[in-house]
């Protein structure tokens, strides 16, 4: 993404010096064992964790854990109880950040203040109730210094009525007005043109979006669901403070 990153990611990086040391053959063993469970996986990446005897395994876009001897598979989240940091979410944020780097900003529908403090990529559906609630307060988000960069995520999938509506919004001469009207419950005038709706939906799936609205911060953190404007600003400030303290 070209826009500046406000929250420099990954407090987990600060722990690198204290990570246990694993032999290369342990990584290979775990990868082989996981490959037997997921033979069709496009990618498997094994890395260290701060826990002795436990390795992190990225299988496509998912994250699981395995014992270093390859005997046990562990599903769930790792939480640092001292810092309360969700290490699994941090690892997923790194993955999302890599995917977000490929976003073409000209294919987003943006509502932003003149000098935003935070830029959020928001996957949205024109027929989703909480998406409509969020958009009805778009001026308040902007007043809080939050820029909203919308991307399409028709929850019913490609080819659904919601998908067709988003295509019509994208193809409208005034995309902002068309999106605002659609979110107010007014069906857009049917239009067809070359559009990114299907590609954005597929990207959302890769990023782990399962519902809308789905808010992604500039460091790849996923905030699922509607958050009121003032609460969202407070949350983003808190996240930025934690990241700054970690660095």
Q: Could you walk me through the main structural features you see in this protein, from its secondary elements to its overall organization?
A:
- The chain has 247 residues and is an alpha+beta fold.
- It has two domains: 11-90, Nuclear Transport Factor 2, Chain: A (Roll), CATH 3.10.450; 105-246, Glutaredoxin, CATH 3.40.30.10.
- Helix content is 37%, strand content 19%.
- The protein has helices at 24-37, 87-100, 129-136, 138-143, 161-171, 175-183, 197-207, 229-246; strands at residues 44-48, 54-59, 62-67, 73-74, 79-80, 85-86, 109-111, 118-124, 146-152, 214-216, 222-224.
- The chain has a five-stranded mixed β-sheet.
- The longest helix is centred in the last third of the chain and has 18 residues, at 229-246.
- The radius of gyration is 20 Å and the shape is globular.
- The protein starts with 23 loop residues before the first helix and ends with a helix.
- 32% of the residues are buried.
Provide a brief overview of the structure.
With 247 residues, the protein is α+β, with helices and mostly antiparallel strands. Helices cover 37% and strands 19% of the residues. Strands 7-9-8-10-11 form a five-stranded mixed β-sheet. A four-stranded antiparallel β-sheet has the order 1-2-3-4, with helices on both faces. It has a two-stranded antiparallel ribbon with strand order 5-6.
